[in-house]
Amino acid sequence: MDETAPPTRRTGSGRGRASGRVGIRDVARDAGVSVATVSRVLADDGYPVSEASRRKVLESVARLNFVPNDLARGLSQDRTNTVGVIVPNLANLYYARVLLGVEEVAAQNGMSIIFCNTNHNLANRERDIKLLLQKRVDGIIICGSGTDYENSAGRLADGPAPFVVLGRNEKLDYPAVHADNRRAGYTATRHLVDLGHTRIAFLTGPERWSDGNDRVAGYKACLADHGLDFDPDLLIRCDFAEQDAYERMTQRGHAGMGFSACLAGNDRIALGAMAAAIDLGLRVPEDLAFVGFDNIATSLYMRPSLTTMDMPAQRMGAEGMRLMLRILAGEAVPSRTVFDAALLVRQSSGGLR
Amino acid sequence: MDETAPPTRRTGSGRGRASGRVGIRDVARDAGVSVATVSRVLADDGYPVSEASRRKVLESVARLNFVPNDLARGLSQDRTNTVGVIVPNLANLYYARVLLGVEEVAAQNGMSIIFCNTNHNLANRERDIKLLLQKRVDGIIICGSGTDYENSAGRLADGPAPFVVLGRNEKLDYPAVHADNRRAGYTATRHLVDLGHTRIAFLTGPERWSDGNDRVAGYKACLADHGLDFDPDLLIRCDFAEQDAYERMTQRGHAGMGFSACLAGNDRIALGAMAAAIDLGLRVPEDLAFVGFDNIATSLYMRPSLTTMDMPAQRMGAEGMRLMLRILAGEAVPSRTVFDAALLVRQSSGGLR
DNA sequence: AGCGCTATAGTAACCCGTTACTGTAGCGGT
DNA sequence: ACCGCTACAGTAACGGGTTACTATAGCGCT
């Protein structure tokens, strides 16, 4: 009985966790077929399987409560049906809507998404990308425009995962989906000019925020087209949220406002600024008119309601995911997909007369 | 030379994709050590590795640009360092903040999260759970209270993944983190009673929404404690968002309001209702006072600002993830973790005199 | 010289679904 | 009878990191 099996056949070696989970081999044994047959039934591709086998397999799957292991599947197919989505700050409803759009299309196509929040921090983003690549996501969708992350190189990773950028980012050399912010800025300004305003302030976000910069560029262009001077004193910077805008506007009020209308870099800024104006005893829009950007859900229901540029966040997110799917399918996609923003005239600009 | 190698030795069989990716074996070859040594250097657990080997391995890893494959890691360790998070509707900032809290703690602990949005739909949730289990997440965090999903059984899956519930849900027999909504409802009502109101309406969400039901329960208890009758006519139902609340309130206004104060199931409902009241020509808070729940970001900056119960969404999300980590570490955790809500008195209730 | 330890390495068997290859019936055609 | 096909089914080699087990060298003691 001097067995000559290769070296020394171990019993429960390697990692050797019991696991308890039923695998495809258990199903095969239970159904009295081979693992290949089980796999084929589950894959349900064209491969011919007799009805008898199929039925036996499905019965065993149900009886044993078999749940296929996507890790193993991913390992052998080199596909995880998962994409990573990196967002700067989910507390901003704009990004929540972008994520929602991505998720919607992903779910419709059987894809899962791993979500990362960077807090506008470059180091976090790099950590997240590394993590996502380790997890072998099929692709990565990066949200957050431009110089939001200043040091970004042209390529984030040479890895095999395709990237899609949501937001304008010239430094990032990947297919991008973004709104025409310059045009939106122009349209918003034009609306105020048409209402007769000549001294129009722009309360925008940090300089590294390229969506904001584009909106400002449109604002300047519109002023120029209408023979109005751009006064640097009317370009006021604050951060992305209500509080800072409120404070800036309050200071400004005490120093003598010097303008009759105010564009805000986004609706949250508009909200803070408008609250400040009201608290200063100004009437909106009679004494000071406001226009925001984004059309967050609440902007329609505040009083006065906020005139705003509707940036199609959810649609952009959805389109980004659609692009990703096409890239994964091997199709060529446009390097730029630009959405137009719509002006929603409401009470805060006084344009409803 | 009649080789007696087992059967017939194939060359590139199995799936046989080239892959091109560098693996741990390439690193081992390059560094002149075994795969075990590479794995140990990367794991950096206690196992002794000589400095010389460690250096060689790290050099090769850098030179070859090696990215470990978490699928393979997960497969052999039966651990993915990933949890699934299921949320009913990300467009509600409340849930966005919950997700943010979860993400924050997850990131701090090297965990990733797979995000799913159900749109308050039970079938979607079941699909998502199945998907997450296939992906072998280490655990699942379910957000969305109670009978939000009516048919939920006591156990969602017998699988090995632990669940944590964010929100009160008696039908779901898992560790839960939720706010004391009954108490919050009581506190909010008490605030209005203290201000002298005797006819107080409650504009709440759908009946299946248990957080809302708990708030209503607190409202009723408070009325009773203060000798006020509960008038079913003052319990008005609408859905979760602004628009429906606006419409209900407008109808009501035309029919004769019949109350001097209004609690809203959440801030979005409050926003819609308040806009309706203002549009009806009522003064807030003089003619009609409002109190909301959630303390979404905009509630502080609308005018009048919204008195609301601050539900600590982000902290609850964070706590839920912390619980999950402890469960994964094998610790026992409390089956109920209850957070208290704080009353934030602002302009809409008239409590700021 | 011999024994026991510790420090370090290496080998190869896992984890589990997929799929390239290799059969083997059964059937029509000649 | 024999060839060629099609329809089905089974075997086993992947993919890539982990780790149980085995092995060797170096060192302190007796």
Automatic annotation (TrEMBL), chains A, B:
Keyword S-adenosyl-L-methionine set for record: no
CDD domains in the record: HTH_LacI, PBP1_LacI_sugar_binding-like
InterPro entries: HTH_LacI (IPR000843), Lambda_DNA-bd_dom_sf (IPR010982), Peripla_BP/Lac1_sug-bd_dom (IPR001761), Peripla_BP_I (IPR028082)
A Pfam cross-reference name: Peripla_BP_1
Biased composition (Low complexity): 1-11
Residue ranges occupied by any HTH lacI-type domain in the UniProt entry: 22-77
Region Disordered: start-end pairs: 1-21
Keywords: DNA-binding, Transcription, Transcription regulation
Residue intervals passing through the bilayer: none
Superkingdom of the organism of origin: Bacteria
Any GO MF annotation of the entry: DNA-binding transcription factor activity
Protein name: Transcriptional regulator, LacI family
Species in which this protein is naturally found: Devosia enhydra
